[in-house]
């Protein structure tokens, strides 16, 4: 039996087992209310993983609250959760039972190799221990000048693009280019984009930005990926993927190849120069402040911390992709909101002027503690997390407790639910960040001033298990985003430089934020082009 036949047999067996479990066996999750399945095959997944799926998620939140049951593939039950006590168990207390789903791990291993988000257990903890040191406060302090250099080039390019000191600009394009350059310079000591006026985004930059919109259309294929991996080697799977007549599947292959090839090119160039004793290359690896230099240096100094080339390349690809998409979209959201709230923009500009009266770069330790700047970043990331939905899979049978009882379908009050092994648990980051029981009745409003006031009792008592600002945006536990300080510094440096140079004004066009693995903006709901137009005016004498 050939590999393709084995995959078909395994998939059919899996489907029959799922049907048996759905129609013959009852699940403990059946008593938890939730929306009806809309598809025999897909359950609720097509509504959940749809670029226009905001209404479906809001309906779950409004009708069923912090704990609900939804339907996955072939009738499988899954939980939809944003209850803080339940999240504490999923993210912290029982985090090794609730791990990344097998399809998520296998998908990222297939696309990028053994990157941090694709490993588990001792392997994951070893990787995390090494990478943790890279994102320390001391290293961020050293990285700030690199980020300022990129932000100044971004400012100059935007200024040159403005006609007679003002105009409308598609800011998502500039932020995407800047975020890629920030990730390149700070992550792998490589310049992807000169950020010159009247220049276009690089082909590589445009390729990276296609990743998130493409993956949202491939959720069904992602779920099937573990079954293919059982019988078909990665190289063969990638080759087969290029032959399947499915535009999104072929596009994701192209994106993965482009990012991996770029990582390989950068790594080979730097290692070849280092091995032949090139003075600049030796100094870069010995003293460099970027992530790649640190990984190579750690491996040279300690066998225990040495990583195989495949793993280094996977980390490079993961950093380039993750740091580009999330940061650019977070910056775009922030400037869009500031354009709509001129009073906050003016107050931020005054705060920055007080910190640096002569327009000089604000030192790291002062920049990260500017109250309003920090409040704006926190509030934007709370209200509009770039990644709004995550998934976990129960590795064993386990009981999940709730902070408040749920009314079961049978009329009983439920304080906890047994979660069978293999069940999927969807974590609604966005719903937790907007939960009025935690954040108050104005939870759905953008109010940076909430961070300038004492922490409300409801927030401190909720014990939200996030690593950042009592919110779930960067997650928590051993799966928390390691680079959240890196991302925060990028945002604050760009805000500090651009707000002292330009005034941002709304363009009154229909900007629509699409639901995806990482949300992204378009003009209207039907466009596939990333756009976020904002009006800019140069502020005289600021640089």
TrEMBL record:
<dbReference type="InterPro" id="IPR002403">
    <property type="entry name" value="Cyt_P450_E_grp-IV"/>
</dbReference>
<feature type="binding site" description="axial binding residue">
    <location>
        <position position="481"/>
    </location>
    <ligand>
        <name>heme</name>
    </ligand>
</feature>
<keyword id="KW-0349">Heme</keyword>
<keyword id="KW-0479">Metal-binding</keyword>
<protein>
    <submittedName>
        <fullName>Cytochrome P450</fullName>
    </submittedName>
</protein>
<comment type="pathway">
    <text>Secondary metabolite biosynthesis.</text>
</comment>
<dbReference type="Pfam" id="PF00067">
    <property type="entry name" value="p450"/>
</dbReference>
<dbReference type="InterPro" id="IPR001128">
    <property type="entry name" value="Cyt_P450"/>
</dbReference>
<comment type="similarity">
    <text>Belongs to the cytochrome P450 family.</text>
</comment>
<dbReference type="GO" id="GO:0016705">
    <property type="term" value="F:oxidoreductase activity, acting on paired donors, with incorporation or reduction of molecular oxygen"/>
</dbReference>
<keyword id="KW-0503">Monooxygenase</keyword>
<keyword id="KW-0408">Iron</keyword>
<dbReference type="InterPro" id="IPR050121">
    <property type="entry name" value="Cytochrome_P450_monoxygenase"/>
</dbReference>
<dbReference type="GO" id="GO:0005506">
    <property type="term" value="F:iron ion binding"/>
</dbReference>
<dbReference type="GO" id="GO:0004497">
    <property type="term" value="F:monooxygenase activity"/>
</dbReference>
<dbReference type="GO" id="GO:0020037">
    <property type="term" value="F:heme binding"/>
</dbReference>
<dbReference type="InterPro" id="IPR036396">
    <property type="entry name" value="Cyt_P450_sf"/>
</dbReference>
<keyword id="KW-0560">Oxidoreductase</keyword>
